Structures
1.
Amino acid sequence: MTPLLTLTNVSRRFGGLLALDGVSLSLTEGEVIGLIGPNGAGKTTFVNVVTGVLKPTSGSIVFRGKRIDGLRPDLVARAGVARTFQVVQPFPRMTVRENVAAAALFAGGVATRTEAVAAADSHLEFCGLAREADKLAGSLSLAGRKRLELAKSLAAKPKLLMLDEVNAGLNASEIDDALRLIAAIAAQGITVLLIEHLMKVVSSSCSRLAVLHQGRLIADGPTQHIMQDEAVIEAYLGRRYAEAQKGAGI
Amino acid sequence: MMRWIWLSIALVAAVAGLLSFGDNYLLRLATTVAMYVTLAVAWNIVGGFTGYPSFATAAFFGLGAYASGIMLVNGVPLGVAWIGAGVVSTVFAAALGLAILHLRGHYFAIGSLVVADVLREVTNTWVSFTGGGMGLNVPLVGGAAAAQARFFLISMAILAVAATLTAIWLSRSRLGVALQCIEQNEDAAQVIGVDTRRAKVAAFAISSLFIGIAGAIYASWTTYIDPSDVYDVSLSVKPIIMALLGGVGSLAGPVIGAFVFLGLEELIWRNSLEFHAGILGLLVVALVLFLPGGLRDLKGRSVLTWVRDKMKGRTL
């Protein structure tokens, strides 16, 4: 298996804070990997650094054999890295269809606006938004806007899709729908990096987990293994909880 | 589409009528409205489509006027000088855009506002080249007075139509989609692969092409320009008010706004010479507060029902 994305010793500093501290991580083509960590661990900074929104302070990022660190976000998008935003970012006064068509037109490499609209319709169908196609994006519900983010990022024809808390704020049945969608996306051969807070979500959809804590990668491995890792439990739930678990013999 | 065809027919008829029967006052008014349409439509490409509130209109207008004036003084033919002025203005706008279009919102507005001041001071100081504060006499276009008036109306009207057609084409082009994305959410635009910098600079350059040529035609039309006239800040403000009147970001808005504005100018300004700047200010405040979408917001309703709706706090 060839690595799709390789980060080597990537750091990002904000003044006195090291938001990412020497992170090295390699993603294999076709896998679904979860990136977890408590609030402020550096998960969103990780996405911003890979997508070119932020330049890494040091380290290198290689995507499909090409250095992409420091590249402008639009060029990274065209190279095949798509993302969704934790806080959804639609074009509010365009219709749902126009939103997706715009993504197909610029990052998706579609030549004309007519083709872009056709591509948009198929992505909307896939994401279950076909009935909402003519609504203004700003009028969708939160779950709808999250789906729109997905449809937009798929229209960009990505090789790597990074989903930043795509389930935050959704109820249980909406999360189940979203998970089915993510599984369907992975089945198309798109590598998915799932940034999550909810353990339930990552444990059921990811085969591999990477854990960030205070900017450092503290664990990386198969999901079942990571979820029993002591350092991870400590970072997530606190030392006292971890000790109590050990004391109880679990 | 039908609407546009009828509008153009009406416009052509009006211009033809003016050319055959109009007196000097009407011709001057019509030329002014064509100039206003050009400036408002051109401003709308940056201020409306792209959402960048530019106050640089006066800078491009003055630059075009002086570029053409200086070329004409040095014996360059009229058509070449006008087109050349457009090119000078476009190149300047592209360079300026690279420098200030990464600023957003208010910062961009301030950045664009000072450009005209800088150019005015340069023009004032560089006496040997520009004539300085004494101004510049632009060589006359030959012919009888009435023929000249008709010539400038035709020239300005062609420019206004070209600017409007360009705006229509732009709104349907790939670049237009990019600008629309930038206007609504610039960060998201970048993430879906829009080269935002290139799109913004292109919009700025296209817009300034028409403004620069308008300045050039104006210079020949008035035959005399000076720095405080062609770099006047009101040249930056008026197109914004016109666009606000008609509806910012729409295609027909700036065109309608330019006509309405000239009407107001003729009615109010000349009857209240002392307070017209004050009225202009009140107009802007009233527009932004009550009719953010322009006069369109009133469409199909009497003013009374509109006021009643407002009182009930309903959104428009």
Note: The interface with chain B takes residues 51, 53, 72-75, 77-78, 82-83, 85, 89-94, 101-103, 105-108, 113, 152, 155-156 of chain A (CB under 8 Å).
2.
Amino acid sequence: MRSVVDPARLDRMFFALADENRRAMLERLSAGQASVSELADPLHIALPSAVKHLAVLEQGGLVRSQKSGRVRTYQVEPGAFEAMESWVARHKTMLNAQFDALDAYLTGQKGKRA
Amino acid sequence: MTKHIPSTHTDFVIEREFAATPEAVFQAWADPEAKRAWSDCHPEHTTEYRLDFRPHGHESHRVVYPDGKVQDIEKVFFDIATGRRIVFAYDIRLDGRSLSVSLVTVEFFASQRGTRMVYTEQLAYLDGHEDRAQRLRGTEESLDRLGLLISQNGEAS
């Protein structure tokens, strides 16, 4: 194999994305870099809470941070959405949607037999 | 000639619990009508669907999107153990170009709720097939859908 994506890395990435505030931060950062307070304010969350969310995004490989003076700014990790991650994310989303439909189908079958 | 972009590989597992017997869940994969009912995300755009559920049998699914793009999914079953296991390989082609090729094992285990289904996919992603803009747009869409699914599924892991 020429290159392999670590499944644990994908897991950390999916975990980082599994939160509304973190997705909102990522969306804001996709428009350009921002400081912690610039990210926390529109979400009406406290700074320590924003710092925790940003740490999860950083561990997930989705953002990177830089400290200049007393201000830490965040930006989207340029290589975060490599082709395959993006493809696998879409693919897994589709499979999960199918399995939701399978669940609904099986529930419906049960109703028919009863 | 286009430049050779190395293929990349990964694997992932999706586990789901269903309130139905392993036989019933297996049957939903085996029966063409049932399979199509839950697995076709674009029934309005599907132009071809066939399922020949037996070892070395094929499942073929063609979708023609409103923008004219044609997606083909071709699947070959290798191992079928009734009520227990299905092993298949498949590829996804967009306008004739192969995007990815996968080997999948689906296993059904009796559980307290009914069935625990374990879906394991090993995937080879071929020559980076999309330009960057398409990719980013796709990622945004998938994030939206992912968010929707996660909010629907609550804290399910």
Note: The beta strands of chain A are 3-4, 34-35, 63-68, 71-76.
